[in-house]
Amino acid sequence: MWASAVLLVLLGSFGANALDNGLARTPPMGWLAWERFRCNVNCTADPKNCVSEKLFMEMADRLVEDGYKDAGYEYVNIDDCWMAKQRDANNKLYADPERFPSGIKGLADYIHSKGLKLGIYTAYGNFTCQGYPASGMHLELDAQTFAEWGVDMLKMDGCKQMDRHTMKKGYPQMTKYLNATGRPILFSCSWPDYERGAGIPINYTLVAENCNIWRNYVDIQDSWQSVLSIIDYYAKEQDTLVPVAGPGNFNDPDMLIIGDFSLSVEQAKAQMAMWAILAAPLLMSNDLRTITPEYRDILLNKDVIAISQDNAGIMGKRVLQSGLVGIWTKQVQYESWGVVFFNNGTTATTVTIKLKDIGFSYILGYDCRDILNNVEFGHIGIDTFNDWNVPSGPGGVLMIYCYDSE
Ligand code: GLA
Q1: Which of 61, 64, 117, 403 has the most CB atoms within 10 Å of its CB?
Q2: Which residues contact residue 48 at a Cβ distance below 8 angstroms, ignoring those fewer than 6 apart?
Q3: What is this structure's pTM?
């Protein structure tokens, strides 16, 4: 009884700014089908890559066997196009029986047997973005169905809900129904992105009260240009976005495309480094069955993941621009920092600054380390000029971790 009283107090102390499901205390990590596998439903022509239970089972196997689960990646998330084209006789959603012969419940059991969690997708409005049945008229029933199946995370999209003004009501209704199921289901909302697109002012306090993570900006595509445009958006909006992030609540700049077709190894390091600094969900959308080791190593970099997953849950921001190099910092526990020097130019460059210039104030100085290349820099005072060598871009990054010297 005391234990539950303490739990209640803890839950209560999340305050008004959090969904009361106790989830996403740090940015969620896992895998999400969309960017890589899209709405490929042709299992006859492309059995290996179509949206089917086999795809999710194979990704779960890779997460476990190739070290991703040990590194923290735990959600296996279905996106659009999993449903049958109609609801059943009781109005319930169900999975396309040919592509998901075990049903979502069967798939959830498999995922859980691996010690992983299952995420699913729906939309506010009558149809998903690809035209499959969605939850608009059935929020309560669908919340219950997802909970019965053992779903652990829900992404609720909304492109077919033409009146974006209704989202302020609809998403919180779904939050209420999810909470009422009693099953902790991490809630990923696309609502702010649609309001932004429609020019409707976004009430981030309300968003954070109702969602664990939320999309702010357009879909990521498999290109460096796309990654860059997202980073630019976050830099531009940081004064709005940083204050709403924290344990239980994170801005979502969309999936990691590391290991797909377009990013160079350097650019892949840049995406990983920046998503960690932004306290972004780390949801990979790639083919873990064929990814090459140099990309896998980036996704498994423990020091970078530690900055992303720090318990304080602080979202980092750009604190200085030096020519074409943006300098981003994220405070982690106590007086420690993750820093990214992000080179948008095409040549390698040296940035000469004092740690004080980027907000470090511990009087005895810091010990710093290059965590992408595992090089120690040793002790650095806050008032001495230091040369930071940043690799060539676009997308060259130096990422360091600095902790206060004793
Ligand atoms: C929208 C979302 C994407 C993806 C697709 C699926 O575009 O933003 O992340 O879920 O729909 O159709």
Answers
A1: 117
A2: none
A3: 0.95
